[in-house]
Design a protein that fits this description.
Blueprint: H1 3-33, H2 38-59, H3 64-84, E1 89-90, E2 106-108, E3 111-114, E4 116-117, E5 123-130, E6 153-155, H4 170-181, E7 193-194, E8 202-208, E9 215-221, H5 239-243, E10 247-251, H6 256-260, H7 264-269, H8 278-293, E11 299-309, H9 311-321, E12 331-335, E13 348-349, H10 351-357, H11 359-364, H12 370-374, H13 378-381, E14 391-392, H14 402-408, E15 415-421, H15 426-429, H16 440-447, H17 450-459, H18 465-494, E16 499-504, H19 519-522, H20 535-554, E17 561-565, E18 571-576, E19 592-596, E20 600-604, H21 608-620
């Protein structure tokens, strides 16, 4: 054999081994990101072992069609391994300890409960406490009912299942976490999917360990476009707040078609004539449970602050206008959303639209009546083509357009801490709207009316495609998210109530200043994704959590020192807390907000002129 043939053969061998190595790497990535079980890893380890032996002894000099055949067999084995090693559904542990110590028994209205201690044994966690009866069978699409009382001690060391929702692709979700949050935990024990169920009406309580009395209470409502989400996500885990003296409560509630489906049949069968707001009614029910039971955990039922982000913030806004939640809380924390525009941009719709849209639900399942729909299995019901991601005026939970309640001064909160991030909309528009310079005005006119589009183009002209895209993202972020907080803060100011508005600008290797990027700073959870944050981030986290704790205690974020955790794990003071001025809008010039970023203090709201344009457009509606 000549030298040229030898080199050619050598290149083939190298290419073959590179191909085998890449195939092994691809299989490993899919198995890891898809959370497939050890069975799948074992099958593929054996398969690749056999493949390599076959290649070395039989295939390397064989015919090309034999090689294709064996590669095809390997692909089929891989498909089989994915089929038989699909991740099971499991409940998520409440603490990171393998065999946690149990808490003392606490007596609540429906029986005795017992939870677990965290690793440091300075926080007690009581997960999966039922606050309402399972909304299944005949209780699907009904106001939440009281849970049945139980005998003995209800012990839980895992969170309850999340509400029924479209889960999304596991590998895609993992890639989003890696790319946008620098989060990738390679742990063999996490090869499972979080359990979900229509039986989801449970809440979680985090409290400081030991005897506690009259502690401030923070009641958190999760986000997720009213279509998804869970009550126990790491970014708003309540452990860090409990370490600093706050009793933190989070609740699950019905979402998507289970939580916001509207039907005349349902309104007719309801003693209160309500339909379309079942998820909101769940939140009210959970808040009532907290009022009745939180004292047993050491909390002060007269000092409750409600909080939420995104759709959770819209829900907080709804709780602030609902007559059903009057007197159940004192203050509100709202992050990146609200429903106070005369025509809200999201998470709210007219009752006429809600009833019309949800005719699709009947059509999707060939249902003649509500009994037919109640007979549809929960997993199939998720496949409806109807959009169920918005609350509505039902005359019961929400009496009127929310802004009207604020104009009358009949809203429920006595103080507000709220705000928005610098780049809220971009994460939603990355794969979506992509205007060019030539179509920039047309895109804006699809979102606003012509007069507003004209004014916005004048304010933010675009001569290049990049400029058009960047300006469009900025304008939509201001409209979809920041505008609600401008309105909300102004309404409270007009009522003589304190409002404190932040502007989050701290970039990082996580979500940065995108939507939801501030959440782990607010609730002290940066340590759960350590690769994404550095020393400056942790310093900002200490400041943000200190503001929140002060606000929960007194209704004012100011006062005293920055509290944080020292290297040895103790809570210490780290200097005076920067002053946060109450919101003011003089109607001329830029509005001042409190920047939370590398700079901490008052800055001009960059979207002030956009708000004025949106005000004029809302008046024309």
């Amino acid at each position: 054999m000549n030298e040229k043939s030898e080199k050619k053969k050598e290149k083939k061998y190298i290419s073959a081994w590179v191909g085998i190595s890449l195939a092994m790497l691809l299989c490993a990535i899919v198995l890891e990101l898809g959370r497939y079980t050890l069975l799948g890893w074992s099958i593929m380890a054996v398969a690749f072992g056999m493949f390599i032996v076959l290649y070395v002894f039989f295939m390397k000099d064989g015919k090309w069609y034999f090689k294709i055949l064996w590669w095809g067999i390997l692909a089929l084995v891989f498909a089989f391994s994915l089929l038989v090693s699909r991740p099971p559904e499991k409940r998520v542990p409440a603490v990171s300890v393998r065999h946690p110590e149990k808490t003392e028994v606490v007596t609540v209205s429906d029986g005795d409960v017992q939870g677990v201690l965290n690793k440091e044994k300075d926080v007690e966690v009581f997960p999966a406490i039922p606050y309402a009866a399972p909304p299944v069978g005949d209780l699907r699409w009904k106001e939440p009912k009281d849970p049945e009382k139980w005998e003995g001690v209800l012990f839980n060391d895992h969170f309850a299942p999340m509400a029924m929702q479209n889960r999304g692709d596991t590998i895609y979700n993992a890639l989003v976490d890696i790319i946008f949050r620098d989060k990738w935990n390679l742990k063999l024990g996490e090869n499972y999917l979080e359990e979900m169920s229509e039986d989801c009406l449970y809440l979680n309580v985090w409290k400081p360990a030991g005897d506690v009395k009259d502690a401030p209470v923070l009641f958190y409502v999760h986000g997720g476009s009213l279509s998804s989400g869970q009550s126990y996500y790491d970014d708003y885990n309540g452990e860090a707040m409990a370490k600093k003296g706050i009793i933190f409560v989070s609740c699950a509630y019905r979402v998507n078609v289970f939580g916001y489906f509207a039907s005349p049949e349902l309104a007719a069968e309801s003693p209160n004539g309500t339909t379309g707001n079942y998820g909101l009614l769940d939140q009210v029910k959970a808040l009532k449970w907290v009022n009745e039971n939180i004292e047993a955990f050491g909390g002060d039922p007269n000092n409750i602050t409600i909080a939420g982000e995104s759709a959770g913030s819209s829900s907080v806004n709804a709780l602030c206008v609902s007559p059903l939640s009057k007197g159940l809380f004192r203050r509100a924390i709202a992050e990146s959303s609200g429903i106070l525009a005369k025509v809200p941009y999201h998470t709210f719709r007219s009752p006429e639209y809600a009833l019309e849209e949800n005719k699709k639900v009947y059509s999707d399942f060939n249902a003649n009546n509500i009994d037919d729909l109640r007979a549809v299995p929960a997993d199939k019901l998720l496949k409806t083509t109807a959009n169920n991601s918005a609350m509505t005026v039902d005359g019961y939970a929400i009496k009127e357009q929310p802004y009207l309640t604020y104009e009358k001064g009949e809203n429920n909160e006595e103080a507000l801490l709220n705000g928005f991030n610098a780049d809220e909309a971009k994460v939603f528009l990355i794969l979506g709207d992509n205007p060019k310079a030539a179509t920039y005005h047309d895109y804006l006119e699809m979102q606003f009316d012509k007069e507003a589009a004209d004014e916005l183009v004048k304010l933010y002209p675009a001569t290049t495609d990049k400029e058009a895209k960047d300006n469009y993202d900025l304008i939509m972020g201001a409209a979809w998210f920041a505008y609600s907080h401008y309105l909300w803060s102004n309404y409270l100011t007009e009522q003589g109530l304190p409002a404190y508005e932040y502007y989050f600008t701290k970039d990082n290797r996580g979500l940065g200043v995108y939507h939801a990027g501030e959440i782990p700073y607010v609730y002290g959870n940066l340590h759960r994704v350590p690769a994404a944050y550095d020393k400056d981030d942790y310093e900002l986290e200490d400041i943000f959590t200190s503001y929140v704790i002060n606000f929960c205690m007194t209704g004012n974020p100011n006062g005293g020192y920055i509290t944080g955790r020292s290297a040895d794990g103790h809570i210490e003071n780290f200097g005076l807390l920067p002053q946060w001025d109450v919101f003011e809008d003089e109607g001329e010039g830029a509005i001042t907000v409190h920047e939370m970023g590398d700079n901490i203090g008052p800055v001009d709201d960059p979207f002030t002129e956009i708000y004025r344009i949106l005000d004029r457009q809302q008046e024309r509606k």
